[in-house]
């Protein structure tokens, strides 16, 4: 379904949106709930990715298809490989079959797992025969995707002797690792993380425990962009807290530079556009916040300011090659943009082309990142339904903030 958006004659109303729980926290906690069944979870994400993971964990079928859900693919690989009675083929969408998984598979094999590639070496589908993993030390690259490391950390307390992971190279997307470690610690699992080494101690059971998932900060980014592009917009988003496990909460600091002031309320945040804000070109290293790169690039384009975004080497192996996709679609709108395999450079564009059809490449974040431009120019979003991967009610919520 293609969607035509035009909010050029509308203004933002002072209203509130309740965004569903963080996809990253939810996916970790659902795996941990299998290890510790007395864990109670509240405000879980209603995203397709989380539903895929949940369904996979209760599936009785010998083939599990997790669609486009990368985190679910990685976490379930480790989960099934360490569960002695499982015999499963784990597969996903055609894009998932192009997203590398060798680093994780090799680490699991080193620990004693039985995993074979059904089609192409290094990529899903995977044939997994679950086993008791007896080894307790493993080395792996830390500079390709943090998801491989989180996948091992999540099963680590269930291994007889726990697990020590030695990471090689510069650790990428580190806040996601910190999130995994903090959630383990919240459940009483002992973790020692020193530099390139993370050691998790074994744990068989936990005290009764309820965890309420904070709402998703990556989803909030699209509303930050909208407020930044508005004249004098103000919006309330819930449920967000000052102490967040999500690295994308850095939005508060980043969007301050685009004239958006965030204030914390009891159960959420208020975003407010600062009047007559003096905009400057921006340089940001997003190695810790890869998922908001698209939002930020489009905000800068909409504001007519230049940006240099670095630390983006993981973008090429996500739902699509996000650097190429951004270059293609921003160029159609009239941007002067240059990308390398790990950075994006945008010149200040004084004008933008209206009525452009934005391709979304099966990537939810392409659709949502470009949508806020509709406050400036009429725009069309191809295959708008892709948003459900992380944000089921995005279009409804977007429409609800305009008068
Ligand atoms: O662990 C997680 O929940 C995630 C880690 C990040 O991936 P990489 O570590 O591959 O950058 C991020 O992009 C993804 O959306 C979610
Ligand atoms: C990269 C993402 O997800 P995943 O890797 O879990 O598919 C994302 O949500 O932006």
From TrEMBL:
PANTHER family: AROM/DEHYDROQUINATE SYNTHASE (PTHR21090), PENTAFUNCTIONAL AROM POLYPEPTIDE (PTHR21090:SF5)
Superkingdom per UniProt: Bacteria
Ranges where the Enolpyruvate transferase domain occurs: 58-398
InterPro entries given in the database record: Enolpyruvate_Tfrase_dom, Enolpyruvate_Tfrase_sf, EPSP_synthase, EPSP_synthase_CS, RNA3'P_cycl/enolpyr_Trfase_a/b
PROSITE patterns in alphabetical order: EPSP_SYNTHASE_2
Pfam families per UniProt: EPSP_synthase (PF00275)
Protein species of origin: Namhaeicola litoreus
Name of this protein: 3-phosphoshikimate 1-carboxyvinyltransferase
Enzyme Commission (EC) number: 2.5.1.19
UniProt keyword Transcription present: no
UniProt catalytic activity: 3-phosphoshikimate + phosphoenolpyruvate = 5-O-(1-carboxyvinyl)-3-phosphoshikimate + phosphate
Keywords: Amino-acid biosynthesis, Aromatic amino acid biosynthesis, Transferase
Pathway this chain belongs to: Metabolic intermediate biosynthesis; chorismate biosynthesis; chorismate from D-erythrose 4-phosphate and phosphoenolpyruvate: step 6/7
Family note: Belongs to the EPSP synthase family.
């Amino acid at each position: 379904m293609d969607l035509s958006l035009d909010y050029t004659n509308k203004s933002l109303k002072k209203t509130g949106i309740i965004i569903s729980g963080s996809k990253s926290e939810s996916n970790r906690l659902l795996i941990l709930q299998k290890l510790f069944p007395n864990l109670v979870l509240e405000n879980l994400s209603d995203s397709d990715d989380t539903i895929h993971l949940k369904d996979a964990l209760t599936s009785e079928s010998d083939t599990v298809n997790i669609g486009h859900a990368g985190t679910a693919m990685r976490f379930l690989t480790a989960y099934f490989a360490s569960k002695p009675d499982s015999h499963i083929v784990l597969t996903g969408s055609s894009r998932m079959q192009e997203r590398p998984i060798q680093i994780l598979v090799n680490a699991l094999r080193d620990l004693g797992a039985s995993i074979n590639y059904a089609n192409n070496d290094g990529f899903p589908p995977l044939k997994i025969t679950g086993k008791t993993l007896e080894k307790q030390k493993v080395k792996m690259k830390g500079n390709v995707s943090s998801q491989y490391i989180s996948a091992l950390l999540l099963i680590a307390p269930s291994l007889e002797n726990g697990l020590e992971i030695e990471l090689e190279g510069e650790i990428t997307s580190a806040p996601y690792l910190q999130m995994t470690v903090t959630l383990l610690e919240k459940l009483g699992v002992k973790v020692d993380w020193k530099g390139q080494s993370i050691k998790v101690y074994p744990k068989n059971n936990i005290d009764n425990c309820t965890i309420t998932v904070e709402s998703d900060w990556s989803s909030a980014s699209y509303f930050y962009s909208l407020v930044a592009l508005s004249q004098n917009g103000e919006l309330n988003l819930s449920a967000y807290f000052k102490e967040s496990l999500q690295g994308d909460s850095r939005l508060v600091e980043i969007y301050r530079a685009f004239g958006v002031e965030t204030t914390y309320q009891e159960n959420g945040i208020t975003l407010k556009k600062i009047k007559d804000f003096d905009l400057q070109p921006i340089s940001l290293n997003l190695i810790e916040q890869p998922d908001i790169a698209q939002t930020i690039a489009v905000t800068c384009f909409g504001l007519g300011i230049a940006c240099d975004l670095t630390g983006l080497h993981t973008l090429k192996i996500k739902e699509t090659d996000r650097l190429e996709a951004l270059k293609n679609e921003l160029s159609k709108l009239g941007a002067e943009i240059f990308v390398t395999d790990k950075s994006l450079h945008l010149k200040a564009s004084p004008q933008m082309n209206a009525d452009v059809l934005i391709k979304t490449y099966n990537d939810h974040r392409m659709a949502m990142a470009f949508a806020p431009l509709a406050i400036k120019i009429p725009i069309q979003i191809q295959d708008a339904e892709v948003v459900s991967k992380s944000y089921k009610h995005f279009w409804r919520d977007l429409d609800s903030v305009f008068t």
